[in-house]
């Protein structure tokens, strides 16, 4: 027996604990700009110390939701509670919430130090405490050497760190991050994502991040709310959203997916059978949320990495088989993406991990291939 | 050979030709007249055509007559208190007017920069619009407004603030000069301020509010410091020409207001003392060189 060394990371899931009160609560919040409804009767609970992501395409209302929490916009209807207190009527400069802006919004006429100290000065903290806190913050974001620089003398990544340090300096109850890493290149973005997680754990604050980048949301956050047209399409952990999407919209927005339309022919205990006329195949899969009835229109959704691709025909009687011809191959280094054209003309993607260092892969263009998957690999979606 | 011409020589010449045009212009229409004025300021008055000696006929003449040049006119300026009190009074009026202009112009520019985008161009137009009428006519119009039996008096009488025989005596006072200057120079203050304020990123104010700074305070710690280049540009664009202003004090200030522009005019046209008035002009220029140099440096930094 091998004994576990060091602390075992406990599962963090306050949302499953019915005794806990939510820290931030959006209660039937609606926001209209003229005729446009940015946020539509939305209710959302976020718990203390949670790293929560609002994910969605631009215009889905995620930024508006965040700006209402910061106090820059007022809800048209509904209310927002923070730690049990109604925030309505409290101006932004009196809310215990700080925001890291997408454009960073650093004060160009102040040094890095001056920017970080700004919020502390507003609190009326005395100079020696301000200096200590600023030094701490500079250390946290590893910018000690740049304290006296002005924002225009910094690189994009450094500016991003100053913005983060400035928004953390006051130790807000909640930190709001509006597309915080959007302006960074991919490598730096990935690094910073992990740093953000470390900082959040170290300081024990509640973080709310707005992003349109699903990878970013999945990497950093405990839970994700996928938004669409001002409503929440699904809330869940990254794996819940990825593996059990609640709707076609979520399945399509988060990650890559194959969607095949069909009609329900049989409803079993857990497994639903679908006849897909377009590809002339019968598919069985687990049912997603919602009541499934025979005859209902439904879609079958499966992630490309769960589709097995093979040159040999599976034994007769194997369920869930599609056949087609390799149309395109995308070599991405770690994986290869095969785009397979089925008899009906539709395309199904299958990804294969490149586990060996061989240059020639056995499957090539125009090969006739068979696609198979286990019954629990995909999901039937009604919406 | 031909390659060298198109690659090195031609672009070099083209670049210098472009730079040379404004320099030649300044040389011809600024430096040359200045040298003539400077030369006259070293001469003596005479009853002649032109009314000073010596008159230089040729370059050979110049060296021969060099000995008769004197700095007497400059010494004269220091002896008569009229001149330095006129200079001081001009500087004072220019300073006060510039401060008044800043106080009046800043809220206008701020309002324009905060107005909806669709309205802003119309507002800029409204600021520039007075330029479509002659400056002189606009200043004359103020006489009609300010004079004792003018529009202000009539309006106040009509509203009942003034009795039928009471009048407002603003015309021919320094107050009228301030009113005229603030009115005339306002666009020169508003436009640079507007340019600076319009560039200001509104999210900076949101960031300030987010960090606990109430709006009035964020004006002083964010908006105002960031609009300083506009404030400096506007102040110098107003201060420098106001020091030498002649028309406004002449038309609105009456005999009470002493300004160097008026003194210069009187010296030149009433006394026909070209050498002394030239000396007045040269000294005025020297006084203005300091703020002009500061302004140029500021502009370079911005």
Strand neighbour order, sheet with most strands of chain B: 1-2
% residues in beta strands of chain A = 25-35%
* Structural class by sheet pairing and helices of chain B: mainly alpha
The count of strands of chain B amounts to 2
Oligomer kind: heterodimer
Strand order of the largest sheet of chain A: 6-7-8-3-9-10
Provide the number of structural domains of chain B: 2
- Say how many strands of chain A there are: 20
H/I helix tally of chain B: 13
Q: DSSP strand (E) fraction of chain B?
A: under 5%
CATH fold topology of the largest domain in chain A: Rossmann fold
Q: What is the CATH class name of the largest domain in chain B? A: Mainly Alpha
Main sheet record of chain B: 2 strands, antiparallel
Please explain how this structure is put together.
The complex is a heterodimer of chains A (383) and B (302). The longest helix of chain A has 18 residues, at 186-203. Helices cover 22% and strands 33% of the residues of chain A. Chain A is an alpha+beta fold. Chain A has a six-stranded mixed sheet, sandwiched between helices. Chain A has a five-stranded mixed beta barrel with strand order 11-12-13-20-14. A five-stranded antiparallel sheet of chain A has the order 15-19-16-17-18, with no helix packed on it. In chain A, α2 (112-123) runs parallel beside α4. Chain B is an all-alpha fold and 302 residues long. Chain B has two domains: 36-70, no CATH class; 79-301, MetI-like (MetI-like fold), CATH 1.10.3720.10. Chain B is 77% helix and 1% strand. Chain B is built from 13 helices and two strands; from the N terminus they run αββαααααααααααα. In chain B, β1 and β2 (52-53) form a beta hairpin. In chain B, α3 (72-79) packs across α13 (274-301) and α12 runs antiparallel to α13 (274-301). Chain B is flat and about 75 Å long. Chains A and B meet through β6 and α2 of A and α9 and α10 of B.
């Amino acid at each position: 027996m091998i004994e576990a060394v060091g602390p075992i990371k406990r599962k963090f899931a306050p949302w499953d604990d019915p005794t806990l009160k939510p820290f931030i609560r959006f209660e039937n919040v609606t926001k209209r700009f003229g005729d446009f409804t940015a946020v539509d009767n939305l209710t959302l609970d976020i718990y203390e110390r949670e790293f929560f992501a609002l994910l969605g395409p631009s215009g889905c209302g995620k930024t508006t939701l965040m700006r209402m929490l910061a106090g820059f916009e007022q809800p048209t209807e509904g209310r927002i509670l923070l730690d049990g207190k109604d925030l309505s009527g409290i101006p932004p400069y009196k809310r215990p919430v700080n925001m890291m802006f997408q454009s960073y919004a650093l004060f160009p006429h102040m040094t890095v130090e001056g920017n970080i100290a700004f919020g502390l000065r507003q609190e009326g903290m005395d100079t020696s405490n301000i200096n200590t806190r600023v030094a701490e913050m500079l250390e946290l974001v590893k910018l000690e050497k740049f304290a006296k620089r002005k924002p225009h003398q910094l690189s994009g990544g450094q500016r991003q760190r100053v913005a983060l340090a400035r928004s953390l300096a006051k130790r807000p109850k909640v930190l709001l991050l509006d597309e915080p890493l959007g302006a960074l290149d991919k490598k730096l973005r990935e690094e910073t994502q992990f740093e953000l997680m470390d900082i959040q754990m170290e300081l024990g604050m509640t973080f709310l991040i707005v992003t349109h980048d699903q990878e970013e949301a999945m990497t950093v956050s405990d839970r994700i709310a996928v938004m669409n047209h001002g409503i929440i399409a699904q809330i869940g952990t990254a794996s819940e959203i990825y593996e059990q999407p609640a709707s076609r919209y979520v399945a399509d927005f988060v990650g890559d997916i194959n969607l095949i339309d069909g009609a329900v022919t049989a409803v079993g205990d857990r497994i639903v059978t679908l006849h897909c006329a377009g590809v002339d195949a019968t598919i069985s899969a687990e049912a997603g949320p919602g009541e499934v009835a025979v005859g209902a229109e439904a879609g079958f959704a499966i992630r490309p990495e769960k589709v097995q691709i093979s040159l040999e025909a599976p034994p007769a009687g194997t369920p869930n088989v599609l056949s087609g011809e390799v149309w395109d191959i995308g070599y991405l280094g770690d994986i290869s993406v095969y785009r397979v054209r089925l008899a009906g003309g539709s395309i199904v993607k299958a990804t294969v991990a490149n586990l060996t260092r061989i240059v020639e892969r056995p499957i090539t263009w125009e090969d006739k291939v068979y696609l198979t998957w286990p019954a629990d690999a995909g999901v039937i979606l009604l919406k | 050979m031909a390659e060298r011409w198109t690659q090195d020589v031609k672009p070099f010449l083209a670049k210098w030709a472009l730079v040379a045009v404004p320099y030649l212009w300044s040389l011809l229409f600024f430096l040359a007249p200045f040298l003539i004025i400077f030369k006259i300021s070293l001469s003596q008055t005479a009853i002649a055509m032109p009314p000073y000696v010596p008159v230089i006929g040729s370059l050979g003449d110049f060296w021969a007559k060099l000995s008769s040049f004197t700095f007497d006119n400059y010494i004269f300026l220091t002896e008569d208190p009229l001149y330095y009190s006129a200079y001081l009074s001009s500087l004072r009026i220019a300073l006060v007017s510039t401060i008044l202009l800043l106080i009046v112009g800043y809220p206008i520019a701020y309002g324009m920069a905060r107005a909806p985008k669709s309205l802003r161009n119309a507002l800029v137009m409204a600021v520039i619009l007075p330029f479509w009428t002659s400056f002189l006519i606009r200043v004359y119009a103020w006489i009609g407004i300010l004079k004792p039996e003018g529009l202000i008096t009539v309006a106040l009488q009509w509203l009942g603030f003034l009795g039928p025989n009471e009048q407002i005596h603003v015309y021919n006072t320094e107050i009228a000069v301030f009113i005229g200057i603030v009115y005339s120079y306002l666009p020169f203050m508003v436009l640079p301020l507007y340019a600076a304020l319009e560039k200001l990123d509104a999210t900076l104010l949101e960031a300030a509010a987010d960090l606990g700074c109430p709006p009035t305070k964020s004006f002083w710690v964010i908006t105002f410091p960031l609009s300083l280049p506009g404030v400096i540009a506007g102040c110098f664009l107003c201060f420098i020409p106001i020091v030498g202003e002649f028309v406004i004090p002449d038309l609105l200030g009456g005999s009470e207001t002493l300004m160097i522009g008026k003194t210069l005019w009187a010296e030149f046209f009433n006394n026909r003392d070209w050498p002394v008035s030239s000396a007045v002009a040269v000294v005025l220029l020297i006084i203005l060189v300091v703020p002009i140099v500061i302004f140029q440096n500021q502009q370079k930094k911005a």
